Amino acid sequence: MNTGPATHEVTNQAPPLAPYDASDDTALLEGLRREGAGWAEEELRRLGRQAGSVQAQEWAELANRHEPELRTHDRYGNRVDEVEFHPSWHHLMRTAIAEGLAASPWADDRPGAHVARSAGGLVWGHTEAGHGCPTSMTYAAVPALRRQPELAKVYEPLLTSREYEPGLRVPSEKRGLLAGMGMTEKQGGSDVRTNTTTATPTAEPGVYTLRGHKWFTSAPMCDVFLVLAQAPGGLSCFLVPRVLPDGTRNTFRIQRLKDKLGNRSNASSEPEFDGTVAWLVGPEGQGVKTIIEMVNCTRLDCVMMSAALMRKSLVEAGHHVRHRSAFGARLVDQPAMRNVLADLALESEAATTLTLRLAGAADRAIRGDAGESAFRRIATAVGKYWVTKRGPAFTAEALECLGGNGYVEDSGMPRHYREAPLLSIWEGSGNVNALDVLRALSREPGTAEALFAELALARGADARLDAAVTRLKNRLPEASQTTARRLVEQTALTLQASLLVRHAPPAVADAFCATRLGGDWGYAFGTLPEAADLGTIVERALPGGD
């Protein structure tokens, strides 16, 4: 049957990006080797090809289109409190766990194991961000749990397993476990010391019962949770399993799942505890001190996921402008667009390089390096504040590179844009992290010494950097809560510049110092100065070269 001539032929559209290699990132691979995990490069490249595959990208899209569903009761009226996920979520989780992106580095004695995990997150983050929440919390739970050795002996081998086994069963009978976290309550938020959940001791030493309501607990399908509650001795940390050792369900009533702006694939919940059995982790009254190591780990993951999101958005934008033409030339060859792309590339490389430096500090601190521990203490909070703050503006600009195409859900860019603000909010919003930097500087003098020792490694290489370090030193004595954000911003930019001066090509380091430190920059991306070597910057950043 003749339906008549077609009205038009589709032209001047970019082909699908997938399949592509998400590990084809020069700054990432250089940082991997530099921070002591070069031995993981072959595995990282394999994971990069898988992350950029048609299948993995489809899993990401489907996991967000088919959101988790809460089932509070079964057909007979029995309380079950189950969360059901689309099969694509489980494919993503299974891969992440098997590739060591959860807690397995804690069972790996190789130097650089934690760096390899962060690099894997930077690559696998090209799929979708939601399932990174349970893998991150599982990773972060181990050092906190080690404060109670008898519990760590039981649970750590299962948390560090590379086996993904969903479903609620007796933890000790599973091949692998996931851990969640429940700290915040609606009357307190980040001020966890105002929590009202109570912990009552039982006749069994170390065992308590909890009563209270948590405002934000991710992710409720996990096997065990680290929870803060008020014990007789003060705010304390507890381990709460969903299923008790005798096979009965612990009381963990999920009231609802959060209807979030982004991170739609991941279930975040409000659970109620009522006679919920819990085991004390660490001494009574030291709940914040016990769980803070978990927070340090998850803050690093927020930096890592922001950097991954930037890189993914940059790759999408770069792919589009390479294939799209306007006014007689490819977009990538037009000076205004090239300036935008180069500016985004600078920001992305600075975020990736800082992420891997923080991961290296964490790896060496865990192995007993006191200097790296002090640097990690302050630099992680600085990075958490700044890199996550840059994410929303970055993804918005990358989306704009696609124009109207980027505003359509099919492009995937709206999902990235909705995800970006999350990483600044979770694990302490901007003010919380800025004030944490002030706290470290005032209470732990070694942190400032470690920071300036790091900056001194680039002394003399760039006059703008040297001047920025001097300004930073002069600002420290005047630091206050009012000016905390400005101080942390200056610290972050100075630290990123020092890393790029030492490790990036001159074109990248010079453009970064000229703009972020020297003031030769506008207020939006795409305002690099005329002297910037845009071609070299873009060629280094885009997969396969320009």
Automatic annotation (TrEMBL):
Coiled coil: none annotated. Pfam families: Acyl-CoA_dh_1, Acyl-CoA_dh_M, AidB_N. Its cofactor is FAD. Residues 1-20, 183-204 are annotated as: Disordered. Residues 285-441 form the Acyl-CoA dehydrogenase/oxidase C-terminal domain. Residues 1-14 have a biased composition (Polar residues). Residues 12-166 form the Adaptive response protein AidB N-terminal domain. Keywords: FAD, Flavoprotein, Oxidoreductase. InterPro entries: Acyl-CoA_dehydrogenase-like, Acyl-CoA_DH_CS, Acyl-CoA_Oxase/DH_mid-dom, AcylCo_DH-like_C, AcylCo_DH/oxidase_C, AcylCoA_DH/oxidase_NM_dom_sf, AidB_N. Residues 194-203 have a biased composition (Low complexity). Residues 181-274 form the Acyl-CoA oxidase/dehydrogenase middle domain. Belongs to the acyl-CoA dehydrogenase family. This is DNA alkylation response protein. It comes from Streptomyces venetus.
